UniProtKB/TrEMBL annotation:
Residues annotated as domain ABC transporter: 4-227
InterPro entries per UniProt: AAA+_ATPase (IPR003593), ABC_transporter-like_ATP-bd (IPR003439), ABC_transporter-like_CS (IPR017871), ABC_transporter_ATP-binding (IPR050763), P-loop_NTPase (IPR027417)
GO MF entries: ATP binding
Protein name in UniProt: ABC transporter ATP-binding protein
Length: 290
């Protein structure tokens, strides 16, 4: 049975469509990254998945059940994007409290160990670094020993070392065969930590596959030349054209073909070819889907 089954989910905040027709199945034991730029609809999708936001259309099933039931049964642990930690409490207090709430929890020491917080049980939440606070949220999500872990941008605002420590903790939990769904803006993070990547853009799924498959599809380049009066968008491979500082900046899925065509058209002046960033890659991907 699938751990997660989202069927044609849609949601709008007033007139702003946040999620549109999202269908997604996650098998038990899979680690799936939901990748997308700001405002893509990642958080809204995860909130519906957790039963915290009622979908406008579509349905959510977690382990074949309504999300609220799966959550009540202790099968789901979540790390929301933001969330207060009860002031003046210690790491140990918070974890012991949650431990007593869940039906099949792990020992508090095990949660501390998984989140790399051993020795810090007595520390109050006000004294935690950003990375420690985030690892505490992770410990709070896993202490109930959930079968499904849902992490919404768990490493936002963490530095490189804290990120690395966080993902090491996550992988420690996954090695027990659990299912994880996490959202991120970062392709490398998705690539390093997920078996599968689902790309959301403007509320829709625009790609779904292994990291290698998705990377191949977003492998675009930027070709820039001195700007002339030309319609660059008709050149082979070109999916987007921008003008910057007197240069035509072309996002292309086939840099060789684009450069060749520029040469044939006598437009190859002061050429520069670089790898595109993820934003440009998204642009290319959505353009191609359209
Ligand atoms: N409470 C809200 N009220 C109105 N609009 C909202 C609200 N929350 C989100 N939106 C809008 O819905 C869309 C999807 O937002 P969502 O937060 O789900 O995206 P996201 O991919 O999680 O973005 P981010 O990476 O910035 O967290 C965006 O256009 C956003 O502006």
């Amino acid at each position: 049975m699938d751990a997660v089954a989202l069927e044609k989910l849609s949601y709008a905040y007033g007139t702003v469509t946040a999620v549109e027709d999202v269908t997604l199945r996650v098998a038990a034991g899979e680690v799936v990254a939901v990748l997308g730029p700001n405002g893509a609809g990642k958080s809204t999708t995860l909130l519906m998945l957790l039963g915290l936001l009622p979908p406008r259309t579509g349905s959510v099933r977690l382990f074949g059940d309504a999300p609220q039931r799966a959550v009540a049964a202790g099968r789901v642990g979540a790390m929301p994007q933001v969330g207060g930690l009860l002031p003046r409490s210690t790491i140990g207090d918070l974890l012991r409290f949650l431990h007593d709430v869940y039906p099949h929890p792990m020992p508090v020491d095990e949660a501390l160990d998984l989140a790399d917080l051993t020795g810090l049980a007595g520390r109050t939440v006000e004294k935690l670094s950003g990375g420690q606070a985030q690892r505490l949220r992770f410990a709070m999500a896993v202490v109930g020993r959930p079968d499904l872990l849902v992490l919404d941008e768990p490493t936002a605002a963490l530095d490189v070392a804290a990120r690395r420590a966080f993902w090491a903790a996550m992988r420690g939990y996954v090695s027990h065969g659990r299912t994880v769904l996490f959202s991120t803006h970062y392709l490398e993070e998705a690539d390093d930590n997920a078996d599968r990547i689902v790309v959301l853009d403007r509320g829709r799924v625009i790609a779904d596959g292994t990291a290698a498959e998705v990377k191949r599809r977003v492998d675009v380049r930027t070709v820039s030349v001195r700007l002339e009066e030309q319609d660059y968008s008709v050149l082979p491979g070109v999916v987007a054209v921008a003008e910057r500082h007197g240069r035509a900046v072309l996002t292309t899925t086939d840099a060789d073909a684009t450069v060749l065509a520029l040469a044939e058209a006598g437009l190859l002046r002061d050429v520069e070819v670089t790898g595109a960033d993820l934003e440009e890659a998204f642009l290319a991907l959505t353009h191609r889907e359209a």
